[in-house]
Specification:
Elements: E1 3-7, E2 13-15, H1 18-26, E3 36-40, E4 46-51, E5 56-62, E6 67-73, E7 84-88, E8 91-95, H2 103-114, E9 123-127
Helix pairs in contact: 1-2
């Protein structure tokens, strides 16, 4: 399977191996010019990530159904329930505490998307329909 990998500050690239995607994800950091990325299937559906060194936000879009979701955890990984700010090349994004992911979570979610497999059971999806009208 071939997908389009787009990383902030880099040329878009058609990829067939997940190892290239994982390497790009592990380079994401708001202190360099690569702080967000997306991976697009041939039907236009995609996953995207934005983040800092240890805090990432993940969203996905189903192009066929025109649905957009933001990933969240069943239980927040942070001690605080207060809203969090993620700073990236796209700007500052305010997220709920349960929407913060580690890079290991990001890699797992992207691998599932790439392999067209179910996401891990601890990953939940919140509709973004009201925000993205």
């Amino acid at each position: 399977m071939r997908m389009l990998l787009e990383v902030e500050g880099k040329r878009p690239e058609q990829v067939r191996e997940f190892s290239k995607i994982e390497a790009a994800l592990r380079e994401l950091n708001n202190s360099n010019p690569h702080s967000y990325a997306n991976l697009t299937r041939q039907d236009g559906s995609y996953v995207q990530v934005a983040g800092e060194k240890k805090k990432y936000l993940i969203e996905r879009r189903d192009f066929v159904d025109k649905l957009h979701w933001r990933a969240h955890l069943k239980t927040a990984s942070l001690m605080s329930d207060a809203p969090q700010i993620i700073v990236c090349g796209a700007g500052q994004i305010t997220v709920s505490a349960d929407e913060i992911f580690s890079i290991e979570d990001v890699v797992s979610i992207w691998r599932s998307f790439f392999q067209n497999e179910p996401f891990a059971s601890y990953i939940m999806w919140r509709s973004m329909a009201k925000i993205l009208r």
